[in-house]
Amino acid sequence: MDPVRARAALYGAAKISAWSLVVAAAAVAVLWLIGALWMAAWPIIIALLLTTLTWPVARFLRGHRWPAAAAALTVTAGFLLLVFGVAALIAIPVGAQAGLVAEGVARGLQTLQDWAQGPPLNLDNDQLDSVVDAVVNQVQSSASDIAGVVVGGVGTVVSGVVTAVLSVVLLFFFLKDGPRFLPWARNNLPGASAVHVPELLSRGYDVLGRFVRSQALIGFIDAAFIGLGLLIVGVPLVLPLSVLIFVGAFVPIVGAFVAGAVAVLIALVSNGFVNALIVLAIIVVVQQLEGNLLQPVVQGKGLHVHPAVILLGVVVGGQLAGVVGALLASPVAALIAVVWRYLRDQLSVPPEDPVIDG
């Protein structure tokens, strides 16, 4: 082996390894800082994701001579109207058919009672009453624990409301002043960072935009196929359930589970046990195809990350940070890939002119 080429290869490997350690240490420091300031970081993350979704509209308005503040305010207000409209789309049909659902629930409970009184349990009314009394006594004995859960739930709701308000406010300012940030960074950062940091931020923002758009596409496909299945089976509230499935696609694991559970419950109380099993099978098949094929392929193509990396990131993120970790795993993996590709490009050495020390 040529000693010159060997030394060049070793030098390049050592240089890349050293920079990889620097990137890893910086990533750990950033993640630690985000964890320490999570209450402030979470609204910023949500606002950034919403900005990538709504910025094309704001850019269109600004391109037609709208003032920045007016465009940002219009888009923010339009987004809020869309959110409340979707909520009404779910609530109005549910309210209109609440009587039917309640009747179905009562009928389901009566069916359950009849089943308990028949074989193989053969429970009579006194035995059923004793079971109910035992459950009531257990609930009463756990009143303090339940109160604690309720108080914690109220705190979670309050925290969620505060986070939502801050996210909307930040969304307005990001839409209004976002284009000024990169020029400001170029003019105020020292040395070479004035070039590299804005470029990395720009590429990272593009990746976040692709993530939100790909997730919206996946949610739409899920809602369309599951909604079609619900329509064929004859389940009521198809439209609000489809909207719920679309929204749930943005919250991995828990979102799909909750939306699917609601659809199965509605099918159970309205259409019976057999149709509920059919709906459950439809949801499981669609979500398995989405989780194991559609999501990795669509997100991997949009984020320029291999599907296996997306799957691994979701698993690791879920283990490290639960639902939030699973939600942010894909964009974080894509951002790490952006940083790595940028460093690789900056550190690449032309083969015909290797850099050798000594």
Automatic annotation (TrEMBL):
<dbReference type="Pfam" id="PF01594">
    <property type="entry name" value="AI-2E_transport"/>
</dbReference>
<feature type="transmembrane region" description="Helical">
    <location>
        <begin position="217"/>
        <end position="239"/>
    </location>
</feature>
<feature type="transmembrane region" description="Helical">
    <location>
        <begin position="70"/>
        <end position="92"/>
    </location>
</feature>
<comment type="similarity">
    <text>Belongs to the autoinducer-2 exporter (AI-2E) (TC 2.A.86) family.</text>
</comment>
<keyword id="KW-0813">Transport</keyword>
<feature type="transmembrane region" description="Helical">
    <location>
        <begin position="146"/>
        <end position="175"/>
    </location>
</feature>
<feature type="transmembrane region" description="Helical">
    <location>
        <begin position="12"/>
        <end position="34"/>
    </location>
</feature>
<dbReference type="GO" id="GO:0055085">
    <property type="term" value="P:transmembrane transport"/>
</dbReference>
<feature type="transmembrane region" description="Helical">
    <location>
        <begin position="309"/>
        <end position="340"/>
    </location>
</feature>
<keyword id="KW-1003">Cell membrane</keyword>
<keyword id="KW-0812">Transmembrane</keyword>
<keyword id="KW-0472">Membrane</keyword>
<dbReference type="InterPro" id="IPR002549">
    <property type="entry name" value="AI-2E-like"/>
</dbReference>
<feature type="transmembrane region" description="Helical">
    <location>
        <begin position="273"/>
        <end position="289"/>
    </location>
</feature>
<dbReference type="GO" id="GO:0005886">
    <property type="term" value="C:plasma membrane"/>
</dbReference>
<feature type="transmembrane region" description="Helical">
    <location>
        <begin position="245"/>
        <end position="266"/>
    </location>
</feature>
<feature type="transmembrane region" description="Helical">
    <location>
        <begin position="40"/>
        <end position="58"/>
    </location>
</feature>
<protein>
    <submittedName>
        <fullName>AI-2E family transporter</fullName>
    </submittedName>
</protein>
<keyword id="KW-1133">Transmembrane helix</keyword>
